[in-house]
Amino acid sequence: MLEFLKNLLSPDGYMPHGQCYLWQTSLVGLHVVSDALIAIAYFSIPIMLVYFINKRKDIPFSFVFAMFGVFIVLCGTGHLLDIWTLWHPAYWLTGGVRALTALVSCYTALQLVNLLPQFLALKTPDALEALNQELQAEILERQRAEEALRNIVTGTASATGKDFFPALVKHLAIALDVPHVIISEALGDPPEQLRVLAAWTDQPIGEHCTLTMAGNPCSVVVQGAQLCHYPDNLQQRFPNSAIVKAMQAESYLGMPLLGTSGRVIGNLCLLHTKPLAADESKNALFKVFAARAAAELERQWLEQARKEAYEALEFRVEERTTELLDINTALEAEIQERIAAEAELQRMAERERVTTRIILRMRQSLDLDDVFSTTTVELRQAVRCDRALIYRFNPDWSGNVVAESVAADWKAIVPFRIDDPELAKIAIDQPNCVVKRLNGTESLIQDTYLQGNEGGRFRQKTGYCSVPDVYAAGFDPCYLELLETLQARAYVIVPIFCGSQLWGLLATYQNTAPRQWQDAEIRVVSQISSQLGVAVQQAELFAQTQQQSAALRQAKETADAASRAKSEFLANMSHELRTPLNAVLGFTQLMACDSSLTQTQQEHVRIINRSGAHLLKLINDVLEMSKIEAGRTALDVNRFNLHHLLHNLEDMLRLRAESKGLQLIFACSDTVPQDVIADEGKLQQVLLNLLGNSIKFAQQGSVTLRVYGSDEQQTTNSLPGAIASPEAQAMLLHFEVQDTGPGIAPNEQQKLFKPFEQTRAGLSASEGTGLGLAISQKFVHLMGGEITVTSELNQGSTFAFAIPINYVDAIATPVSPPLETIVGVAAGQPTYRLLIAEDNVTNRYLLSEMLHIPGFELKWADNGQEAIELCKQWQPHLIFMDWRMPVMDGVEATRRIKADAQIDQTVIIALTASAFEEQRQAFLGAGCDDFISKPFQRHLLFSKISQHLGIQYQHEAADRDQATLQCEPCTPLKPEHLAQTNASKANSLKTVLATLPETWRVQLKRAALEGSDSRMFELLEQMPASQVALKESLIQLAENFQFDQILTLIALADAIGTGDLA
């Protein structure tokens, strides 16, 4: 590198050219040395500038310094190029560098032109020094003001009540360095005088003296309600002011004392013997303490008002004491509570805030442990003490600490152990010590004094213990040693009352030093103790509520168990009653088919049938009411023609009404839709019951049914049992049944809808069970309404209800074809094997007789186990399975048969005497294909067999003789049976039946198809008295459950009516 430089700058390499063409070697050397030194200087200056900017980043105009650095670097580069061109004529390079230098220099000069005003605006050192001195003076003045404010606050912080105003004027005068400061209270409304509360002056102005407002500078302050400042010439401004003259005041500064309502309540002023210039800091300080003085003055007014009210109340209590000597203790307690309540209304705002916060935290839980823990923590922080605890009394007046909150670095009492040797020594070694007994198994210190005196002074609700210094309280040495061990120097203890019972104590301790407990702090602790008592009461009430809830749940479970027992009893009774009743009605049906019976014997059979049917109706009513009470009755909502139902009701009841000379009126409004969605069966039963009762009890006049609709403001899905249909609309349907009967007494109307209750008219009628209206009311409740009654004696009665329904467009009602008598299995079919599983011999025999037709082969089993064995051996097509059997019941037998792959295809039809759906569902759940309820009709047996086996039957001709009309043979037909028929009587019955209304015949046909003997009897009761023969014949068929014969008779009558059969 060195050799390269030597060769580069060697004199031998010098080539004279340009302006240095004639230069001598010494001149060239001079230029080289000079340019090199200048370049070095140029390069050193930017380095120092960069260093300076880096160290003084706060200096302004750093950008200009950077541009100067760039300019100087370019200048140094130019001098180096001058040396270079002595050997190498690189004039373009030198020119380019010079052009760049010119550009940078021009840009820098332009920036300097723009920044020159800012340079000139910079403060000179002298100006900066003056400004610094002004700031120091302001800081000093600020410090003096803060010191004055601190002195005033310190001087007035501990002063309250009467001592506040003297302390305020004193420290304010010292702080503001003025000779006279006066604070006064405005008298009158509007104020006319000022009463001096406190004054700091060398003039004899006594406290509570009165100053007149006229000619006084204070009047300007009070009347203007704003700060007033007179810097000089005060005596010339107010020449008549005595106080200004007395104090030789030259200047004045006054500030009004404004109450919370904005009214002027006083004046705070200062007077000076010298001119007093305006000073914002003094004015601000004056405003602050004027506001504080106003607040204190109002507080004293409130305190005085409270004292006066209390004194007045005391006077009234004393005045009334003589008159209330004979009042009991309860009234005296109430007066004391009222006095305490009125005193409690005067609590301070700070106390309210603290206590409210603690109470809110207490109310967040009903767990006493959480309440106690939260209360001690919040109370210790609120009163700023070192320890807070809750002490609970036991029934024997011993006690223990249940909760504690202690500041850091202090020993906790909870948990406290007997293994503390120091405390144990203090408590045990001195037998006469007040506090001596410790319990090592619990966190407790027992106070034997409190235990012996049953709470001592704390049994009084107003009693509390406040000790500012334990060493000045005169305690026993052993108690002092205990307190020293617990690190207590001062404490406040208040009682906790749960109602009128002393429950425990709430204590706060100061450990660091003695403490003068303030009244507000004691009131806070007292109020918290009261709320703790309330919390304890609430927790105990909550515990009692939980116990009551548990008792109610237990009672509900007991009631549910009783309801289940009742249901089980009714289920058993249903089975026990229906099983023999099935035999009674079945065999009377067989006996009615016996032509060898005399007329008297036939009448006896009819009596037995009617009695059995009546007994079955009673059983059904009782079970229906039981199902309603157990909540097992549900709506069977379907779509039906309401107008058709009403027409049928009218046709069915008209004959019965006319036979009694009554006028039956059906008034249906145009607003009633035709096709509705509701429970048709229950609605029809309710209307039949209400109309039937009116016809039964009315002896003359009329019975009227009114039906009309009104808008219902609810959706279809809100209706009871509604069927989801997009085109359905809602309506409230009203029904009223009015009669001109004997009426119902008001005292009897209350029991109309009670089960087994009847009015006097009902009892005199000697019929009915007293369940009709009760069941009707329950049905109406299910449909979303309620039956109401309006009645007066001898004025008739009106029963009314309204139910919500949905209505849709009209639909056609299908007509069921008539049934024909079955005499055997149709030709061309195999013999079907039927197994009867029934332990009751009578019922088994009855079934055998009913199913004894050509084409059926019958066998029977006494129990479920035998039925399974016969099923495996004999392979029957169908089994009639009874529920209750010995060895194995029908449900278990069905389950096992359906579980066997060899015989699981066997059809099983359950025979049950239960009226409850749960027991029927048990059969279906076990695998039964169908079920039949006892007592049953013969045609239903054949219908179920045909449904499951697909059997075709051979039917008897529709024009059979009297034997066919009177009874269906239960054994295969024989020629001698047919010979005993009476065709003329059959023709007479069908001819008379054809004269009756078609709608009534349709209802009779529907009842026969449904196998409802009770419904059949209701329809037959509506027949006129002139049709006794037809009525008795139909009753006989219905009592014998020969509904297929009735259907055949109706079909013949319909054929006569249409002219198809003469």
CATH fourth-tier homologous superfamily of the domain at 634-808: Histidine kinase-like ATPase, C-terminal domain
- Evaluate the radius of gyration: 58 Å
The CATH class of the domain at 634-808, by name, is: Alpha Beta
The fold-level CATH name of the domain at 634-808 is Heat Shock Protein 90
CATH architecture of the domain at 634-808: 2-Layer Sandwich
Mean pLDDT, to the nearest integer, reads 76
Quick structural overview:
Among the domains are: 119 residues; 160 residues, Beta-Lactamase (2-Layer Sandwich); 133 residues, Beta-Lactamase (2-Layer Sandwich); 175 residues, Heat Shock Protein 90, CATH 3.30.565; 134 residues, Rossmann fold (3-Layer(aba) Sandwich), CATH 3.40.50. It is 52% helix and 16% strand.
Keywords:
1062 residues; alpha+beta; Beta-Lactamase; seven-stranded mixed β-sheet; six-stranded antiparallel β-sheet; 35 helices; 16% strand; elongated
Overview of the molecule:
This protein has 1062 residues and is an alpha+beta fold. Among the domains are: 2-120; 148-307, GAF domain (Beta-Lactamase, 2-Layer Sandwich); 385-517, 2-Layer Sandwich (Beta-Lactamase), CATH 3.30.450; 634-808, Heat Shock Protein 90 (2-Layer Sandwich), CATH 3.30.565.10; 822-955, Rossmann fold, CATH 3.40.50.2300. It has 35 helices and 27 strands. The N and C termini lie far apart (151 Å). The relative contact order is 0.04. Mean pLDDT is 76; it is low at 416-431, 434-446, 713-718, 812-819 and 958-985.
Q: Could you outline the blueprint of secondary structure elements for this entry?
A:
Layout: H1 2-8, H2 25-55, H3 62-87, H4 91-121, H5 125-157, H6 164-176, E1 180-187, E2 193-200, E3 210-212, H7 217-224, E4 228-230, H8 234-237, H9 242-247, E5 251-258, E6 264-272, H10 280-321, H11 329-344, H12 349-362, H13 368-383, E7 387-393, E8 399-406, H14 421-428, E9 437-439, E10 444-446, H15 448-452, E11 465-467, H16 477-485, E12 490-498, E13 501-510, H17 519-592, H18 599-629, E14 638-641, H19 642-659, E15 663-668, E16 675-678, H20 680-697, E17 702-710, E18 729-739, H21 746-749, H22 760-765, H23 772-782, E19 788-791, E20 797-808, E21 822-825, E22 832-837, H24 841-850, E23 856-861, H25 864-874, E24 878-882, H26 890-899, E25 907-912, H27 917-926, E26 930-933, H28 938-949, E27 953-955, H29 962-966, H30 975-979, H31 983-995, H32 998-1010, H33 1013-1020, H34 1028-1039, H35 1043-1058
Parallel strand pairs: 15-17, 22-23, 22-24, 24-25, 25-26
Antiparallel strand pairs: 1-2, 1-6, 2-3, 4-5, 5-6, 7-8, 7-13, 9-10, 11-12, 12-13, 14-16, 16-20, 17-18, 18-20, 19-20, 21-27
